[in-house]
Amino acid sequence: MSVLQEIVAGLGVPNFGVLIPEIIILLTAFTVFAIELFSKARFLITVVTVVGLFLSAVSTQLISQGDLTFYGLYLVDTFSLTFKFFLILTAFFVVIVLRPYLESKDTYYGEYYYLMLFSLLGMMMMVSAPNLITFYMGIELASISIYILAGMFRKDYLSKEGAFKYLILGGTGTAVISYGIALLYGRTGSFDFATIADTITSDNLDVGAVAGIVILLIGLALKASSVPFHFWTPDAYQGAATPITAFMAVAAKIATFAVILRIMVEAFPFAYEVWNLGWALLAAASMIFGNFVALRQDNVKRMLAYSSIAHSGYILAALAAPTDAAFTALIFYSLVYIFMGLGGFIFLSAMERQYDWNNHINDFRGLAKRSPMMALFMLIFMFSMLGIPPTVGFFGKLGVFVALIGSDIWWLAVVLVVMSIVSAGYYLRVVIYMYMHEPVSKARFNFSMGEAFTLAFMATFILILGIYPTIFWDLSSLLSAVLMQGVGR
Amino acid sequence: MTVEFVNATFPIITISIIIPLLAAGLLFFLPERHAKPVSIITSIIVFVLSTYMLFAYDYSTYSIQFYEKYSWIPFLGVSYEVGVDALSLTMVWLTAVSFVAAFVWSTNIQKRIKEYFIAFLVLEAACIGVFVSWDLVWFYIFWEAMLIPMFLIIGVWGYAERIYAATKFFIYTFFGSLFLLIGVIGMYIYQYYEKGILSTSYFDLVNLGLPFKLEIIFFLLLALGFAIKVPMWPFHTWLPAAHVQAPTAGSVILAAVLLKMGTYGFVRFSLPWFPEASKYFVPVMFALGVIAIIYTAMMAIAQTHIKRLIAYSSVSHMGFVTIGTFALNMEGMNGAIITMISHGFTSAALFLAAGFIYERVHSYEIKDLGGLARFMPVFATLFMISAMASAGLPGLSGFVGEFLALLGTFKASVITAVLAGLSLIVGAGYTLWLYHKAMFKESELSAEKIEKWEKLKDMNAAEFLSFLPLVIMMFVIGIYPTWWIQLIEKTSAAILSKFIGG
């Protein structure tokens, strides 16, 4: 009997059937790596990546029976499958706009593709983690790939600066997370969420438990770019190639929110007083800081980076209330933020390829005359981020708002409202420049099919969901129920 | 309050909301030359539909008619619920008429025609939606969605300071409506905890039976949202800026329809939802109303810019609506509603007149005018009728509403009625001065001016046609107000049922 056979005999064979999406992503990444190494066929790389993502997305929908596999280290349930699907979708949209952008900037590297796939794999592990170790592995895989991606825009000094900041601060973040995990392990003797939940209850919150939770929370806040741990965000977002920024601002964030929600709900369900207050403070700080600083930005990419900090605030605000409504609101907002965030950043990525475009607010002058369609898309994205109906951004904020008032957390609801008004200042500014100023240049635009499709898809979806958000509400409420069911599994 | 519903056999309200949206979507893909006919035809269809409703409406009892309800977001208890009572119907009809006038007038527009009409069509859908929604989430969606096109209309097609005015308008109203949202959600949550119902329907929230303290809080939150929209003193500062900078048709819609949303909110929501708080705040609302009436009338006298003058006069007229509403009796309520519709027609006509003068003379400054009547008699006549109706000459629409509102107020508080009544004189003063200085006052005429103005043409067909329905309605309401009062009588009684019993 070989060693392998002994293990199998002792523990049973892990259920690889539920891991097919991850396996496909991994194989695609290696295939892309090989193609990059031997042939450098750019079109082939894109096609292989897209096909891999497509197959993986389909396979997430084909898994009907979830499972806790790998000896309790990997959990596949509706929650993780749904988030995996949306993460893959995000990666898909980034991939189809990536090549024209990189070629126009003359910095094409095949590495972009497989690093993105590795990062995606890390995120998929994150959302599937029932255990602090799996979570840690996932977040490290995702982050390290992203550090490289952020710095790949080698000709640009800002890219190096941003990536380096991100590396240092992100590294600190993971260190802090591992410290938190160590403390929690010391306190509870387990990495498993369910065991931790059983051990830490509201009547035995001692220093060890609280310190563990708080330190873990700080590390997570850093990854979610929440104030005061946001310092890497504007630089890393501004420096990276814009499609990569979209990937960071959307996929990485969504995965982080999902994992934060899972850890809070499944590992600390009975210590909610601690994390409620923690997230409420972080959310308020993010909203206030993100919005006020965004007001002062003239570079729209940097403005959107600050606005994404503010959006972290809106989303995390839902964690101030330990109720079903709040978890649903968080999931709903995260899912719809995909459309707004991708829309905004991919708009910039498409525009940056145009002649004489530096993302400066002045470049937006008269855009409505130069390209009515693009201006309309950006208008929809801006009003959606601002939260004006009939766009879906309104329902995102509405959900959080209802959850907060429902739990009697009026102060945070008021902060949210006031900061929404402040945010009108900079979102409207983009609209004003597009529609109410005369164009300075008459140069024609041209967009690739992928860009046009992505932007049209995002704008349409924002409007459709803005009128009929029911499907997403039902989905979010289902996912929230799944999470709550998992408590004390 | 129990309400009867008459279900629509045909979704006529939904259709009148969807048609402008479809037309807007269609225009995006059509060449520019189709913009004007498509928009005008659309607005006429909506007008015909709303007129049909006006005549098909059974006003012998109070019921919500043409009622449609479909479940929409079950998770939050939201449904799509539309229908009209006489108040909504009045407002919808006013909206339809104003948009026909605005579109016909806009055939003179030259700049970025397609986008202009798309913005107005979207605006029309949102305005109708506000007045027919009985579900608070839908109400809020329409209430906010209206901001986007109006922001663009002021900002793109306005005059020199347009961006400042548009931003001010947007942020002011956005600020107010978010507090409205807090209030509504607060009530929704309260309802969930007290009654276990998850619903945003007006008819559930109206029977909430809030404790007095909460009534006060929610009343204030909602009132902030409505007061900014009305606008009531001291929240009125966005209005003159927006009016002065907006293009003519934008001013027309702003004055005729958008301002009514605020007073509609007070009548529709504040009174039936918070009867105790409404009674409690009557002195405050009277005070604010009277200040608005007197202060802004004084401000209007001091203005040299025609549109700014009319804007201030609007705030003043809305003051009558406020005091009429909070008189909390039938006369006051009828007066408020009649003033709302009458002000819709008169202010729309006055802004059209201002636009007309600007097209000819290229100035809004009163000092640049004088003696115009000699050169354009048709316009002078129509302008005269509108100005008189606005000033409250008996026989025209302005008189009926303000008289009833004052009568109602007199029953509630003599001093308020006296103060508000005195300001009618000021109102007559600035309107007549405006007319005198702009149209007569031939002493201002120099030889040079006469030579230049001799060439000016009187009204063209589009201008005349957009004026005409407004002027006709001023006479109709002025001479035979009984009809309209009968129409709204039962609705006023239903709205006031918590105050006067029955």
Description:
The complex is a heterodimer of chains A (489) and B (502). Chain A has 489 residues and is mainly alpha-helical. Chain A has helices at 3-11, 20-38, 42-62, 78-105, 111-127, 132-151, 157-188, 193-199, 207-223, 232-239, 242-267, 272-295, 300-317, 324-352, 367-370, 372-386, 392-406, 410-436, 449-467, 470-485, and strands spanning 67-69, 74-76. Chain A has one domain (14-485). Chain A contains 20 helices and 2 strands. In chain A, strands 1-2 form a two-stranded antiparallel sheet. In chain A, helix 2 runs antiparallel to helix 3, helix 6 (132-151) packs antiparallel against helix 7 and helix 11 runs antiparallel to helix 14. The mean pLDDT of chain A is 90. The longest helix of chain B is centred in the middle third of the chain and has 34 residues, at 162-195. Chain B has helices at 12-29, 35-56, 86-105, 113-132, 136-145, 147-157, 162-195, 202-205, 212-229, 238-245, 248-273, 275-302, 306-326, 330-361, 377-391, 397-412, 414-439, 447-454, 461-479, 481-495, 497-500, and strands at 4-7, 63-73, 78-84. Chain B contains 21 helices and 3 strands. The mean pLDDT of chain B is 89. Chain B has a 3-stranded mixed β-sheet. The termini of chain B are close together. Chain A binds chain B through residues 328, 368-369, 372, 379, 383, 388-390, 394, 398, 401-402, 405-406, 413-414, 417, 420-421, 424-425, 428, 431-432, 435-436, 468-470, 473-474, 477, and chain B through 72-76, 112, 115, 137, 140-142, 144-145, 147-148, 151-152, 155-156, 162-163, 166-167, 170-171, 174-175, 178-179, 181-182, 185-186, 188-189, 192.
